[in-house]
C-alpha cells in the first residue's frame, strides 16, 4: 500500500497536470474560434466557384479541359494526406492514418499494379507515411504552425503538373472535415480529374442550358480551374486545422475531467490512510500509557 507521502505527491502531480491540460484546452478553444472563422469565410466562395465550374462543365461543347479528362485505366494515384503537426489531440491522427491505409488497400484491390504516390502534409503524416514502402513525392512539415495559402498553391500546383504531364491518373486528398466541436469526419476528396457531384449530375438532367462564353470557354477555364484547385486544397487545410483544434480541445477537457476525478479518488484514499495512521498512533499511546500504569 502506498504511503501517505507517496499519495500526497501523486495528488500534487496530478493537480499540476490538470492545470496544464486546462490551459491547453483554453488555448485550443481560442485557436478553434479563429479556425472556425477562417473556414466559414472560405466556404461561401468555394461553393460559388463550384457552381460556376458546374455550369461551365455541363455546357454543350466539344471542348473538354484536361482537368476534366478521366483516364480509362488508373495506373498511378497520388494521395495527399493532411494530418496535424502536433499530438495531444485524441484519436485525430490515428483515425486519419487508418483511413489513408484503408484507401491504399482499396486502390490495390481495384488494380494490383497501381502505383501509389504519397504527399504527407503535417508532421504526424510525414512521420507515419515515411515508414511505408510507397514513394513520398513531397513532404510538408510544420504547415499548421503558420498556415499560409502559398502552401495550398504549392501542393495543388505539384499535383496538377503531374496530372497534366500524364505521370498521375488521379489525385485524392484525405483529410479531417470539421463538422462541429465534438465531431470531425475523415473525407477522401478527388481533386483530379475534376468530377461533378451527384447533386450536380441530377441538376444536369433536369435542365440543360446553352451558354454564350466571352471570352472563350477554354480561356475562362484556364483561369478558374487553377484557382479552384488551390481553393480545394486550402479548404482541406482549413478544415483539418479547425478539426484538429476541436479534437485537442475535447481531448484536453476530458483529460482535465479525468484528472479531477482521479484527485478526488486519491484524496479519499489519502484521508482513509491518514485516519488509519492517526488511529494506530492513538492505540500505541493508549497501550503505552496502560503499560506504564501497570508498572
Major sheet: size, sense and barrel closure?
Answer: 5 strands, mixed
CATH fold label: Pyruvate Kinase, Chain: A, domain 1
Shape, please?
elongated
Cα Rg: 29 Å
End-to-end distance: 37 Å
Order of helices and strands: HEHEHEHEEHH
Description:
The protein is α/β, with parallel strands linked by helices and 295 residues long. It has a single domain, classed as 3-Layer(aba) Sandwich (Pyruvate Kinase, Chain: A, domain 1), CATH 3.40.1380. 62% of the residues lie in helices and 13% in strands. It has 6 helices and 5 strands. It has a 5-stranded mixed β-sheet with strand order 3-2-1-4-5, sandwiched between helices. Strand 4 and strand 5 form a beta hairpin. The protein is elongated, with a radius of gyration of 29 Å. About 2% of the residues have low confidence.
